Amino acid sequence: MRVLVTGSDGFIGKNLLSHLSLRSAVTVLPVTRATTRGELTRAAAEADFVFHLAAVNRPPDASEYAPGNIGPARALCDALAAAGNKASIVLASSLQVETASPYGMSKLAAEQVFVGHRTALGAPLAIFRLPNVFGKWSRPNYNSVVATFCHNIARDLPIDIHDPKKSIPLVYVDDVVAAFLRCMDHGFPDKPTASVEPVYRSTLGELAELIRGFRSCRDTLAIGPVGGGFERALYATYVSFLPTERFVYDLKKYEDARGRFVEFLKSASGGQLSFFTARPGVTRGGHYHHSKTEKFLVVSGRALFKFRNLVTGERYEINTSGESPQVVETVPGWAHDITNVGESELTVMLWANEVFDRARPDTYESRL
């Protein structure tokens, strides 16, 4: 399949091309502002499917909206019509068509160009009226508040919020691309206008607070629920704006004669991750918990875990090593410790189901 993509070097275009590159049966025909009329004519004649993403979003002068949005639409439809090409078209439009702004009116006029093309040639058409789109490769200080906030906060630069309570609808670029590709793979919806789901809503104040939380995670180690939904998409976008020198950050190391202890990540809903080391012959632990539970994974070295039931006095031992990965769980009401029984340093990953609270540690000394 030969797929023509206008605006292929733009924000959504880059993401779409990245997904299309994973398909060996697809050949992309990219169209940008640098594409000549002759090149567009050839691409339009060859295309089996068309994504029209080219647009002007924030020109220096409002008079540029009409030629910047209507002009490319006419050029593409004229080229397709001249070739008699009835290829299906996905059009990236905007919710702003419902407004009387110069941008909205130019996008509505561009839609009408494609509707006329569909009527004349019978070419299938899906019009996506998109709200604010966010994600990697978006352009800060242009037309995306998410991109601007992520870019600036990642660099400790100030952000300007005129109305913190202003609510904006948002869609994630991966969801946009997925909706576009569903049209290519499975056909078009019955109605001419299509939508992207899910649509997230956030106020500018909430948006800034979330992104600042991502930034402070490196200091507090506390991460929010970034495994799904809006926060997953927003966190991925924030990280994409990190300058290369901030791909890495340091952690505090606590060290004594026994070895090292390093906290890695804390989550109110997911607990706490850390790791520790122990020198040969060293025993760590020697305590119990009423409710807290832990999972230990020996990464390297050999360890002996000892357990004692506080009520019955029952004892139990487990030998484990990094050569045969096993998870050892601590159980409430059982005192436990871990001893390095090898000849090299012991390294152990540790997960606790709750973040350590010095005021209520739920950790009580008890020798085995």
How would you summarize what this structure contains?
This protein is of the alpha/beta class. The protein is built from eight helices and 20 strands. It has three domains: 2-130, Rossmann fold; 134-169 and 201-249, Rossmann fold (3-Layer(aba) Sandwich); 254-365, Jelly Rolls, CATH 2.60.120.10.
CATH topology of the largest domain: Rossmann fold
Fourth-tier CATH superfamily name of the largest domain:
NAD(P)-binding Rossmann-like Domain
Q: At the first level of CATH, what is the class of the largest domain?
A: Alpha Beta
Beta-strand percentage? 25-35%
Radius of gyration: 29 Å
Number of separate domains: 3
Order the strands across the largest sheet as they lie in space. Answer: 2-1-3-4-5-8
